[in-house]
Amino acid sequence: MNNIAVLPIILPLLAAIIVAFFPRKLQLVRFLSQGLSLIFLGVIGWITWKVYTGGIIVLQSGGWDAPFGISIVADYLSVLLVLTTFIIGAAAVFYAPHALSLEQESFYFYTFYFMLISGVSGAFLTGDLFNLFVFFEVLLMASYGLIILGNGKIQLRESLKYVLINLFSSMLFVTAVAFIYSAVGTVNLAQIAERVESAEQQGVLTAIGILLFFVFAVKAAIFPLYYWLPNSYVVPNPVVSALFGALLTKVGIYSIMRVFTLIFVHDTGLTHELFIWLAMFTMIFGAIGALSTNNVKLIITYNIIPAIGFILMGIGLHSEIGIAGSVYYLLHDMVIKGALFFLAGALIVAAGTKDLKKMSGVIHKYPLLGWMIFISALVLAGIPPFSGFIGKLLLLQGALAQEEYLLSIVALASSLLILFSMIRIFVEGVWGEESKLVTTEKKKVNRLTIPAVVLIAISIFMGIGAEYIYPHTETIAEMLMERTEYINSVLKE
Predict the structure, then answer these.
(1) pLDDT tens-digit profile of 305-314?
(2) pTM of the predicted model, to two decimals?
């Protein structure tokens, strides 16, 4: 039964191979991709239920016990993130036919899509550092294929920048893995956690931890390493931006959460205080960036950055309520960022432009789109009773409990800036008199809006139904802070 832990990795990888054989038969590939995505979502839902009712599932590949075999660990955190990944992926695969040109679709979009889902799932589920590096490379290879869909000069320039930055961070990652192996003699996360406590060279381990943090911070777009993200994520098609914004940066921040609650907990006075300061700068600078542009898609892209700051805030607090808030906010942001990029794509088609200054009155022809943008703005900003509010409330409770008053003020200020940047889209682009540029492609716009409606409905439930979801995030926080359940499950102690 433990073999089911590898299904979120294997199933989309097999699907990627299958659809690669039919690049020109788009109708068949669409049908297969949409059908398989829904089936896979059902399977992942079943695996999530098995974990939450029966406990952590650990697969040791080849029958070799940890630390000799490759460990796939489906714990309370990883399965919830994998489930959210497949929900966003399923929405994206229904959005794609209406957002992509026939040429873009036929250029192996669905193959790269399934590879991306497999890589992201593997990164969430792996139980050792080296295979975390491997799955990072899998998802990055898929992202390279997705980001070049198109033929603009700006897109090619930003794609090259994206590739070079990730190649550099991957080089540092494999170097950090080599250093930690030389220091403790293993790359298995659970065994590293055991050996770190008794290791003699604590200063060296702290330095390795900071190097790993640097690698993950590049991938998560944490201040000051977020400079590559806005232009790299704004140039692809909206469906690609949705996958990137909802999933890729979250793998980076998840890695920080996992590594710095499981392994590097021996010198929290240094590392976690650094996290708090970086979280504050990330929240503020990302929100200011969102106010500095009139490009609708770029506003949403910049709003990825402060969300990472909020999640890092809870990790830096290093308390159960702080971690619970980070997990809640992470799940919320994955869902709402996917919805926002879907809505941005629909709005650009409806308005006939990306420029807020040229938009107006879209709501008259497209009321569903208009009101979804308004609701999503409230969700993202953390207005009660939506999911963003629950995550931020937990984070603020954690900050105030530790008398982190400056952090609390910065978090509230960032939330106000985020709200203002999103309300600008509604007031300037959606409300008001109808612009002459507004198109009449009602059928296409509605089809682009529906996947976003599904994700927004999930986000609303996460807010209104917080009493059902919070106990699970609390359980995750307890597991991450205690560490013993994870370590014992992997090492069978």
Answers:
(1) 999 999 999 9
(2) 0.93
